[in-house]
Amino acid sequence: MEKKATDIVAYLSIIGWLVSYFASTREESRFHLNQGLVLAISEIILSILGKLFSGLLSWLVGIASILLFVLWLTAFVPACKGEEKHMPILGGIQIL
User: Fold this and answer.
1) Where are the alpha helices (DSSP H) in 53-84?
2) How does 18-39 read in b/e, with b if 16+ C-beta sit within 10 Å?
3) Are 43 and 69 in contact (CB under 8 A)?
4) What are the extents of the domains in the chain?
5) Pairwise CA distance, residues 67 & 46, whole Å
6) How many CB atoms lie within 10 A of CB 56?
7) Per-residue model confidence as pLDDT tens digits over 55-74
8) pTM of the shown model
9) What are the C-alpha distances in Å from 90 to residues 57, 65, 79, 80, 87?
10) What ranges make up the beta strands (E) of the chain?
11) Tens-place pLDDT, residues 14-58
């Protein structure tokens, strides 16, 4: 899979991330694979928190969901352009 395509697919879903991980040379796309994984894990954690705090604090989880979408956009747009730009807040987390 071409690097730019791999970078884009890594952000689309968890399944897309897995396809990108196994279909590419990891060193070329490591930056976007890492950021996609950080976003996916954040999404899972936020989903769990949304289920736990379904009452009074659910508005806070909703605001965090909007923030996570904005972070996704700030990572996805540079991937479409072929750039490696860290997303704010979560961009410094290195898993891979």
Assistant:
1) 58-81
2) ebbbeebeeeebebbbbbbbbb
3) no
4) 3-81
5) 11
6) 7
7) 767 788 889 999 999 999 99
8) 0.86
9) 22, 14, 16, 19, 6
10) none
11) 999 999 889 877 688 889 999 999 999 999 999 888 888 777 677
